[in-house]
Amino acid sequence: MKKSKILFLLTLLLLTLTLFDNYSSKAATGDENIYSIPSSVKNDWNKVWGGKSFSMTSGKDLVYDIYDNKYMEDGYTITTRDFGKGEQKYLRFRGWAVLFGYKKHTPTNQDTFIVAHKVSGSGIGTQKIYKAVQKGLNATEDLEFNNQGSGVWNECPASATNKRNDECNMRYEDTSFDAYLPLDELFKNKYEKASWKLVLVKKVSSNIVYTPLIFPFEFDDRNYNGGKISLSSGFNAKTLRMNSEQVLRRSKPRESASSVTDDLGSDRYFTQNQDYTNVDSDESQTAVWYGVRSPKDKNKTKWAATSYWTFRGDQGSLSYEPPNRPPVAEFSTSPSKIYNDTTITFNNTSSDPDKDKLTYKWQIKPQGTSDSNYTTFSTSKSPTKKLAKGNYTVQLTVSDGKATNSVKHAVIVSNRPPVAAFNTTPTSDIYYNTKITFNNTSSDPDKDKLTYKWEIKPRYTADSEYTTFSTSLTPTKILPKGEYTVQLTVSDGVDSNSYKRAVIVNNSPPVAAFTYSPTTVYNDTTVTFTNGSSDPDKDKLTYKWEYQEPNSTAWTQFSTTTSPTKVLNKKGDWNIRLTANDGEASTSITKKITVGNRPPVAAFTYSPTTVYNDTTVTFTNGSSDPDKDKLTYKWEYQEPNSTAWTQFSTTTSPTKVLNKKGDWNIRLTVNDGTTSTSITKKITVGNRPPVAAFTYSPTTVYNDTTVTFTNGSSDPDKDKLTYQWEYQEPNSTTWTQFSTTTSPTKVLNKKGDWNIRLTVNDGTTSTSVTKKITVGNRPPVAAFTYSPTTVYNDTKVTFTNGSSDPDKDKLTYQWEYQEPNSTAWTQFSTGVSPTKVLNKKGDWNIRLTVNDGTTSTSITKKITVENRTPSVTLSYAPNPLYEGDNVTLTATVIDPDKDKLTVIIEENINGQWKQLKQQNNVVSGGNVIHSMTVSYRDYSIRARAIDPDNATGTATLSFSVNPLKIDGFVKHTPKWEEIHNQKKHPTSYFYSGEKFVLSANVTDHPIEYVIVNFKGIQKNGVELNINQALSGNNPIYNGEIFDTKMSEPTTSLENGNAYFLFTAKWKNGTIKQDLVTIQIIDNVYGVFDFYRSN
Fold first, then answer.
1. Measured between alpha carbons, how far is 370 from 119 in angstroms, rounded to an integer?
2. Which of 219, 727, 1008, 1025 is the most exposed, fewest CB within 10 Å of its CB?
3. Contact at 8 Å (CB) between 785 and 802?
4. Each residue of 837-886: pLDDT tens digit?
5. Would you state the torsion angle of the CA atoms of residues 887, 888, 889, 895, taken in this order, to the nearest 10 degrees?
């Protein structure tokens, strides 16, 4: 190694030892007692707030640094010390502090204190004060103005106070300190999470000033008591704000001003009140220089001394995160007795002493097996599960995310015995040849596979008599007559169960059967009965034969032989019953035998043989019956050309007039009480010709006259007649049929002599008669209507011709008009039904003349052309309306007669119509427009349209004008809201220094701006005025007001009222205001946490 390098290293080592000795030396007696707190500090430490924002002449310009790496890596450490309370753990950090410009700092006139205020954990609000151990670093040279090297330039007198350093420079000796915070005292509960906010207090002589302690960098956590200690100023710890103007952006600590000027020229200063990010620091001397990222220099690092930087981090917090305690695993199961279909509930009663959120893992394995057999079945808190029979070990593992704990319990799933049961098919009526099915209905609650043993013994004998007859599920068996006990034993492989049931095999009854002959039986027939009965048990049988006569319910025995005979001497249904008996049981069979009837013989004659429709015919009955039964008779006829039969007698030999020509059928039906027989004969009724005759009316006939013909024809046989009516027109020889009705009508539509002929037919023969009728002549008839019936001067009137000619002659027409107030007739048409516009108001005469070529007829009608009332519609825009808007009223007029109109627009004010506008000579379809500015009230508007005939059309409308409003609200930030709620303050109470959160609710209408003017009196008597524009969208606008003056002790707001005047201006020019008054009750330093977080 070169000699020069060795010499440099020795010099550097000597300098380091000298500095360390200087820093470590004790400045004054008592400095080692951190618990020695003067009463003035205890009582008044928080009366005067200070910081870098105060001037050097205020005595409150508290400047400090906390070292990040000076003499101690990473800024702070945990050390064991004894400050009179025995050895314990202390957190130690190092720094320096002065009241810049206040007075000379000596080893004996100054002290530094750290105040800790508990903000989380038990005992929130607790306050601790600790004295820092004074050390020997001087800050004189760091704070000297116009430093010329050795000595102090322009040194202040020893007694000087509150001086700017450009007036004179003061000495700042022994300003460094070691701060010790007793961790065992601050964090007594090893397992409680807690946090303290830190305040730096500087006492120089009797002047005591405090400021929130802020660390301008980030510390790593330290291990303590199994947990973690953190010292932090939060997310913005590295944010520094430039608090002065014309501070050079140096490229390295303590770079000369000329070098900066040469490098940067005129743009060489940091921007006052701009935030920068701390990226480096220089702790080589007492005061720290901070290097920040400079946007003006492409984010290169630029430097300035500590006094120019305001630390923007949060108030420093000393926090403790306790060590984790493992959770406690525990569970139970329900129900206590478990089977393989039981839903088991695993009741989790695990807990965590730290109240951490837990996760769970449930595992199961067969009892007595290796833990490698565990399988996970759930991760829910209290799961349910069904298990097969067996013995298990269930393990619950509980985790709080850092530690786990497990517990095991045995779970036994027990066996349940099977249940034996069966029934038989059939359930009763079992005989020796019956196949018996033993229906096994046994079950097992565990659904185990079962085995079966079926046994049988004679009923009422010892169990030793049982013999096994099957091991199948559902066997069958045939048993001889007798009584038995059948036993089923069921086994699930572990337990068994038996069930017994009696089975009785009964006697089989005989089967009764017989036939008879012959099958056709009359009342003198001998019937033979053949017995076909049998017995399933081959028992000897006895018989009983019985009969039941027709229409009787009584049974009469007629034989006990095997196959007897009998004459059934009464017609009808006989019941024959055979009963077979085997000595124990009997069976009967019944059959019905019908004794039949022989039908009678029908016969008759009639007279006379020649018959007309008024002839009386006599019928002679010749019927008989082979069974000598008494007979009854029914006589019927079928008229000519009919298929319907009609009864006309029940006597033996009746008479009848056959009153209709043609072939009649006569039928005689003979009945012996059971059977009927019929005979039919045909009789022909002869015909006689009809007589034709008629009259007509009226006797005077025209060619549109309806002539009625009255038929007077007749028929000697009273036959129904048909008719044919024919005419022969004048000068014609042709006959034309015009009707077949009895008495028709006809219009003889041609003048002259007509011949009318009637031909009458009775269905066989026709007769005719002819008469002459003469048709005369008549003049036409004039008639018309018109539409519409209401006529105006532009109406096209349609004339509908209703003229006619009685003789149907062809007509010609002449239409004429006579205008109002005129006597002249003017022809306007010769058409049938013309149209015309009667274009003049008044009474018109219309005349129609009709001519049939020989004679004319006229008719005249009056038509009045009427005046029509004009109409008007009224509208307004825009809609909706708000006060200050300009409303446009539009009246649109229509006059059907095209008259020019006078239009008036009016407003109803207190029941009186006030004219807003009148316009004359308005054409139909024209608009009249009126505009006006509206206020907040209801409006009623009317428009009238008047024609020259003074007919008036009217339209009205009403509308309401909405108000424009602004409602202002002054609120707290969430943090301050919480503090005020804890103190149960009214919403109008505020602390000076907290941020005012502003909100305005305005009427949703196009708006130009929303602003707030704040006015309050400061403690220095100056009125503070702030104007703030609010931003947002209708109807909500938001903003904030905050000024650092409100948080400074001398410029904070006085207690009492402060005012917020909310002003909104809408685009229609309307301005509305709302004044909100709040009450200032204190400044923010009257609240426990000594720092601003708004």
1. 52
2. 1025
3. yes
4. 999 888 999 999 999 888 899 999 999 999 999 999 999 999 999 999 99
5. -170
Count of residues making up the chain:
1094
Q: How far, CA to CA in Å, does 210 sit from each of 57, 107, 312?
A: 16, 20, 17
3-state secondary structure at position 781? strand
pTM: 0.43
For the purposes of burial, counting CB atoms within 10 Å of the CB of 628, is it exposed (0-12), middle (13-18) or buried (19 or more)? Answer: exposed
Give the tens place of pLDDT for each residue, 450-480: 999 999 999 999 999 999 999 999 999 998 8
Contact yes or no for 418/443 (Cβ under 8 A): yes
Whole-number pLDDT of residue 949: 87
Nearest alpha carbon to residue 889 among 866, 912, 872, 865: 872
Q: Within 13 Å and on the Cβ side, how many CA atoms surround 705?
A: 19
Question: At residue 477, what are phi and psi to the nearest 5 degrees?
Answer: -165, 145
- Whether residue 426 is preceded by a cis peptide bond, meaning omega within 30 degrees of 0, is yes
Q: What is the DSSP letter of 372?
A: G
* Gap between the Cα atoms of 1053 and 78, Å rounded: 43
pLDDT, the chain, mean: 91
pLDDT confidence of residue 71:
57
| Mean pLDDT to the nearest integer, 596-603 | 89
Mean predicted confidence (pLDDT) in 298-302: 96
Which residues 6+ apart lie within 8 Å of 600 measured at CB? Answer: 623, 624, 625, 626, 629, 631, 670, 671, 672, 675, 676, 677
